[in-house]
Write a structure and sequence with these properties.
Layout (H helix, E strand, L loop, with lengths): L2 H13 L4 H15 L5 H21 L3 H5 L3 H9 L7 H41 L1
Length: about 130
């Protein structure tokens, strides 16, 4: 299994230990991470660090807002200062991957519509005989 997918699954299990405001702030952080120009693997490693930090703070009874300093964006930006951004090559490969995925989805949708249309035509002509 891909290391990033494995880490994602492990992070999802750790995420189940959070609740209340910890869970809410973690959701905000993960959404914010998804919009930053880092690789999926880097995002999952940062997420792992955040989860471990949040779980430990929760066990100590610490308030999550105190932990992050009140602004999750600034907190996340401070952490991301040391994370390398995607290279131009990685951004191009990612964009092409997305474009091919979308094109493949459209092709499958068109093919299924054609099959449905031809089936409908077959049924309507069969019913008229």
């Amino acid at each position: 299994m891909n290391q990033t997918k494995q880490l994602n699954r492990e992070n999802n299990r750790l995420d189940e230990q959070l609740d209340g405001e910890y869970e809410s702030v973690m959701t905000d952080l993960v959404c914010y991470l998804r919009g930053v120009d880092i690789t999926d693997g880097q995002a999952e490693r940062v997420r792992r660090d955040l989860l471990e930090m949040f779980i430990a703070a929760k066990e100590r009874g610490e308030d999550v807002q105190t932990l992050i300093g009140g602004d999750y964006r600034q907190f996340c930006d401070a952490i991301l200062e040391n994370v390398p951004r995607r290279t131009v090559r990685q951004r191009v490969v990612n964009a092409l991957s997305i474009a091919f995925h979308i094109a493949g989805q459209r092709r499958r949708l068109s093919a299924s519509k054609c099959r449905c249309s031809s089936s409908a035509v077959s049924l309507s002509t069969a019913g008229s005989s």
